[in-house]
Design goal:
Blueprint lengths: L1 E7 L2 H13 L4 E4 L1 H6 L17 H5 L1 H4 L5 H12 L6 H12 L3 E7 L4 H10 L4 E5 L1
Antiparallel strand pairs: 1-3, 1-4, 2-3
Length: about 130
């Protein structure tokens, strides 16, 4: 399998790319800071469970009791996600730097024969960088 990695500056172009990739039959994974922070177990957040007998007010404020992961934890979670794509340590480090600077990522795993088609879609959707990893 070939992995295509695209970096975007804005969410609008990411959405456009996702729509076009789906229409062409590609499956993708999207990563930005908000998505990585929300993934269960990715940032070490412990879910809060109020007892069934807890007053409603406690239940309403439960989300305030869950600590939000810090930026370093989010970046480490992002790097762990990249490990699924069999990328080198140096490549993951470079992508983590772009991620720290608010880059939004789209990863496409596809057969080598369709990789150029996926790259073109991502480039046409204004990705600032598109890289093929075989």
């Amino acid at each position: 399998m070939t992995t295509i990695v695209a970096i975007f500056d804005d969410a609008w172009n990411v959405e456009k790319a996702i729509e076009q990739l789906a229409a062409a039959g590609f499956e993708d994974s999207v990563y930005d800071e908000a998505i990585v922070a929300e993934q269960p177990g990715s940032a070490g957040a412990i879910p809060f469970r109020a007892p069934a007998s807890a007053p409603e007010r406690v239940l309403e404020n439960a989300s305030n009791l869950i600590s939000k992961p810090d930026r370093r934890t989010i970046v480490e979670a992002f790097k762990a996600q990249l490990g699924r794509y069999n990328l080198s340590h140096d490549v993951i480090g470079g992508y983590a730097t772009a991620f720290i600077h608010d880059g939004k990522f789209v990863f496409v795993k596809t057969d080598p024969e369709r990789a150029e088609q996926a790259k073109k879609i991502l480039q046409d959707c204004n990705a600032t960088r598109v890289v093929r990893h075989d």
